[in-house]
Give the backbone structure.
Amino acid sequence: MRFVDEFRDAAAAEAVLSQLHAVRLSEPATFMEVCGSHTMAVSRFGIRSLLPEQLRLVSGPGCPVCVTPLRNIDHAIALSRLPHTIIATFGDLIRVPGSETSLERARAEGSDVRVVYSTLDALHLARTHPEHQVIFLGIGFETTAPTVAAALLQAHEERLQNFTVLSDHKVMPPPMRALMEAPDVHVRGFICPGHVSTVIGAGAYRFLAEEYGASSVVAGFEPLDILHALLLLARQAADGRAEVENAYGRAVTEQGNPAAKGLLARMFEPCDAAWRGFGVIPGSGLAIREEFGHLDAARRFEVHVPDAEDDPACRCPDILRGIVVPTECPLFARRCTPEAPKGACMVSSEGTCAAYYRYERRRPPVQGGDDPVGAKAAS
């Protein structure tokens, strides 16, 4: 089969694929991955082209940059225009378009926006630039949030007066619940994110089976891990089961990481949060606790953030819910490219549109079965 030779263990992949194609489903099944790293691996290794006819795999809200709403980007840009301010951010966020501009363009116009590779880098900026306010843009799921919590605690203990965080951290289970309750989303099961699950544990997904009859498999990031997860999901569907299975036992436990969860609980508290494509999801965000409000950029600095709406032609919101694929967006590979992105899903290295553009837009149609790319691929 195509692409299998690119796998690290082609023979094992062939064996799993043989078992996957031997599963007999009584009806078609759609599964969703909700991790940006899975999204890239699926596209890079052509996994969709290897699947049986009745099995469909779509991408969901697994990219934290992609689900960050327009207003939050505008808030960060407004903060960057404050005098004597340094904005510290991870690289993916800098090119995401706001309503009028981006952090990259704001930097070109004179704002001090710096790409950092860890929260420790942001703390170092605050220590070495005491005459500036250093604002770190906290974007991410449970994987990165503990590192930001650790930085907040360290800044608090050092009594740094010029370090704050604009927190837009989100947690993964609530949007999975929202997907199950959405009338236009029809998903039989999920490939659960490996990195997030190392923190929250496989047990965090049990509500999907118990309340919605949806299957879940925690998976690693090798293509063989993903194929194995799909095999387990397909077998659950064939047997009429809905369970949580942990196929990433080398890194994920049932309970997760108690130290990381304890740090999150100390520095953050749950809050309602806005998601691109979903609107406000109750309890899906992490707000800095009032005790540490002096480290919260949203509390410390008052800026005007205008109301704005996304470009209605951009299908990022629907792509993030798995309703359409990137090639069904009228902007994809035309007005929206990695060099000139119109939507967040094309900017991020974990975005679904970026993955399709790089790996899938020119691939030939999948033979037999539902092909979400196929002949619709942009030239």
